[in-house]
Amino acid sequence: MKRSKFNALLLSFAIAVGLWLYVVTNVSVEYDTTFHDIPVQFEGETALEERGLMVTSGTDATVDLRLYGSRSNLNNLSAQNITIKVDLSRIYDPGTHEVGYDISYPSDVPSNAFETLSKSPDITITVEKWESKEVPVRMVYEGVVPEDYLDDRDNALLDYEVIGISGPASVVEQIDRAEIYVDMQGRTESISESFQYTLCDKEGNPVDAALITADTARVRLDLTIQRFKELPVVYTLAEGGGATEANVKITLDTPTIRVSGSSAILEELEQINLGTIDLAAIDENTTKTYPVKLPEGVINLTGVNEVNVAIDFNGLNTREFIVENIRVVGVPAGMEYELVTKRLTVVVRGPDSKINQMTAHDLVVTADISGKTPGTLILNASVDTTDPAYEGVGALGTISVSVTLRESPEKETT
Predict the structure, then answer these.
(1) CATH value of 228-314 in 1.10.405.10, 3.20.20.10, 2.170.120.40, 1.20.210.10
(2) pTM of the predicted model, to two decimals?
(3) What tens digit of pLDDT does each residue of 333-342 get?
């Protein structure tokens, strides 16, 4: 019996304590608490923008609230579900503003369930005029490419020549340009990539652009970097007409030309050949112009597209002869020929000592008719000297001989 009474008393005590704790923690209205660092929400930015204004500081504000109310209601609150809003549409002028704010609570908590004992700190924001403008993009190159390479900076291409920026007038007015820094040191390949830029003032100092918005965050640069090479200008000399390399002086007005291109192409390119200078086709001192021809992909940096070649003969003279000594060789079997050309005017060139002693009998014109078909033909002929004493004397220009080729008449049989 005594044990039953003791258990009953113990149970009653536990129930009493539980009821007391419930009342103390959930029901008692004699209670207050402070909610710290409640974030502030800002509304009405659009209205502010329409007035040419923007908030430049104070938007990261938080508020501490000390509230008084029932424990049951206070227990339903936190810094995350209490809403504090500032209406920016009430601001019409730039400057520093101390703004009021509205406090709201979760929908399941009565709005009149609390008494605000304190709220701190006051919310102060800075409002400035909003401004926009365009600034040019300027390239800042640092370092140099290797000695046998060049970069075409003057023709660099940017996808943005200017950048539109906007933000606080006090900051926008400081910005003079957008600078891109490109390290050129040791580069051998063309650049085609996007770069970040830095907004700078007139002196080139970076401007704090945290509140600035821009058309783009990066600018693409295309810049050609190529190897260059100095190439000698040469020619192929065809001796003839009594002139050899020993007795002709050839002078080029442009002896070398600088070109650029890929390393692979330039590695194979050792010279620029103007073509053949045929001395037999040139009868007097003259200057000829030859075009400069380059492989595809090679750029002529010198800008010289033609080379003038001066050709001067030394110690040579010319003389004209009427030659009747004409022969035909290579007559096909079963064919016979008739010379239509009976005599030719031949101009020869050689040293004065030899030219002055020659006669027409010292020259022979030879036409090769091998492989030809019947008909009247015009054949290119060669001119030779019949006396070894006149070796080195040669004819100028092209010599042609007219020949009629026909089948031989059959011989009569007896």
Answers:
(1) 2.170.120.40
(2) 0.59
(3) 999 999 999 9
